[in-house]
């Protein structure tokens, strides 16, 4: 993948981040050359995300100022030529987020009958899956679940339901030719049964049937093993910083 395409894929991931910025007090969804912001306004850095890949220090300074002025705890991710030295002492380096891709050509699996799109009536069960899977308080997971109440053809939450019980969920957001994966959650008590693998395979197959050609995601430390084993390739590693405790990176 050349540099121009990599920059474009980063931009698609940023545009998809709007999916968890449901309308609320102070919420910010903003993108321009060299950065994107998706600040939901909840008191958790896991749903307030900033990204900068510009070498221009004024871009980083602008995004930092916007983030800090919001007062929200945040995950701040850096890629490309961005200088981490310009972040300042308030931001703790907590690891890396592999930015991964998977081409959808060659998918020959059948749709899984256990998978369905979540609707407004599933708000509570989706929120519970996200809360338990990520170790989030309900006021935070309710923001993720809020997607089911929006009228969006591009942003959707999918659930795998086994024996009448929802056991795994994922949020997908389609941007041009890419399906971006967010908030994949399978609570530990439902783990090691292939649910996440089956759900991920199903949503990628559905995306391919809609003329989508590539999957994109930012992997958490917990999720990377699944993605490595299902054909995803790491394009680069984003450096992750935070100014608060994160359920995914410092929990």
Question: What CATH first level of the largest domain would be assigned?
Answer: Alpha Beta
Query: Helicity level, as a percent range?
Result: 25-40%
CATH evolutionary superfamily of the largest domain: Gcn5-related N-acetyltransferase (GNAT)
- The CATH architecture designation of the largest domain is 3-Layer(aba) Sandwich
The DSSP helix count reads 6
Terminal Cα span = 34 Å
Strand percentage: 25-35%
Unreliable segments of 5+ consecutive residues: none
Report the structural category.
Answer: alpha+beta
Biggest beta-sheet profile? 11 strands, mixed
Strand arrangement, major sheet: 1-2-3-4-11-5-10-9-8-7-6
Summed over residues and divided by their number, the pLDDT gives a mean of 92
Choose one word for the global shape: globular
Estimate nothing, just give the exact number of structural domains. Answer: 2
Structure summary, number of beta strands: 11
Per the CATH scheme, the topology name of the largest domain is Aminopeptidase
């Amino acid at each position: 993948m050349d540099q121009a395409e990599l920059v474009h894929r980063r931009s698609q991931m940023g545009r998809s981040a709007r999916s968890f910025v449901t309308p609320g007090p102070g919420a910010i969804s903003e993108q321009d050359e060299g950065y994107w912001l998706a600040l939901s306004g909840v008191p958790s850095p896991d749903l307030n995300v900033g990204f900068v890949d510009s070498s221009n220090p004024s871009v980083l300074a602008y995004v930092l100022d916007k983030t800090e002025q919001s007062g929200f705890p945040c995950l701040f991710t850096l890629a490309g030529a961005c200088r981490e030295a310009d972040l300042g002492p308030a931001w703790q380096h907590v690891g890396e987020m592999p930015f991964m891709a998977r081409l959808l050509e060659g998918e020959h699996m059948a749709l899984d009958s256990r998978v369905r799109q979540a609707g407004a009536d599933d708000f509570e069960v989706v929120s519970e899956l996200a809360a338990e899977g990520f170790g989030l308080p309900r006021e935070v997971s309710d923001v993720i679940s809020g997607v089911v109440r929006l009228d969006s053809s591009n942003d959707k939450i999918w659930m795998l339901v086994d024996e009448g019980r929802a056991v795994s969920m994922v949020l997908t957001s389609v941007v041009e030719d890419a399906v971006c994966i967010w908030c994949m959650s399978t609570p530990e008590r439902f783990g090691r049964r292939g649910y996440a693998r089956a759900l991920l395979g199903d949503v990628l197959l559905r995306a391919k049937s809609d003329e989508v050609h590539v999957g994109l995601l930012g992997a958490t430390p917990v999720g990377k093993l699944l993605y490595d084993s299902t054909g995803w390739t790491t394009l680069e590693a984003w450096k992750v910083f935070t100014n608060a405790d994160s359920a995914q990176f410092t929990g």
